[in-house]
Amino acid sequence: MIYNPLISIIIPVYNTKRYLDETIGSVLKQTYKNWELILVDDGSTDGSVDLIKDYCNSDIRIRLIEQANSGQGAARNNGIRQAKGDLIAFLDSDDLWTPEKLSIQLEEKVKYGVEFQYAHGYLMYEDQNNKLETYDWISGEFKGLEFFNQLFISCSVNTDTVLMDKIIFDKVGLFDTDPELRGTEDFDLWLRVAKENYKVYGSKERIAYYRIHPGGTHLNFYKQNKGRLKTFRKYLNDPVSKSKVFIKSFTFFIRDQIEIILNKKKDPTEIKELLSFQLQIDPHGLITNLQYKTFHYFGIKTFWFLSQNIIYPIGYRIENLIKSISKK
Whole-model pTM above 0.70? Predict the structure, then answer.
């Protein structure tokens, strides 16, 4: 029996008319043909809707949903609710798929018997004549806590490469539409998927082109880190927050966020809140306690100078030495 499921492809759209022909074109070129394309316009004002309507008139597999501006997560949720397929795939309105994207993932789904999939791809730099750069992450079969831990260390699951069973949403819920999570709502959802112990497969195939351009959300590192921090807070009372993986990932994240704040905002109140939160997560950590006390007694400039030149380089060595001794 040939496996030929209907795949619902969801594209949230907001003022990306200049990219839509390429994006929709990459769906039309798919070698796998049993799909429906749901474009959810999130209050565009650049003529995106009229362009989408032209495609709807030319292909019955393409549908348009219009909504008031509510954010990317809300647009995806709207599409998921109205999807008819058993499988869900996502594509951003400024990105592209390779023609074999769906075919490759369906073959892998059958081969490995998985419920959530992702893959590798390319970064495409618009300001460098669409120069391509490959990106990689972990690949292979995962389940439950193993995948959860990998996500916390470094989430590189590109939404454009995800293919998942629609029924998963009945268990984990939809994208969180909290405004503070905009840009990181996918990270939050993938963690919930991992917590439910679904079978996951990460492919080594490169099946998507992620466009890097000035209007993209990927460049707002401060906002993305704020969203990630809020996601971390969801797991404060979860046993996973006591794991070494969670603590290590969180301390590195705090380090990055503090540097962003110092470079852009120089807000001592926000840094104090971050350090207090870090102390709550890692109350016995050497680096955590040194940073907290340094900030409290010496202020921002001295705190960051000592962190960069003494606390980080020496603290990590001491912590690693203690770990190696404790293992013997």
Answer: yes
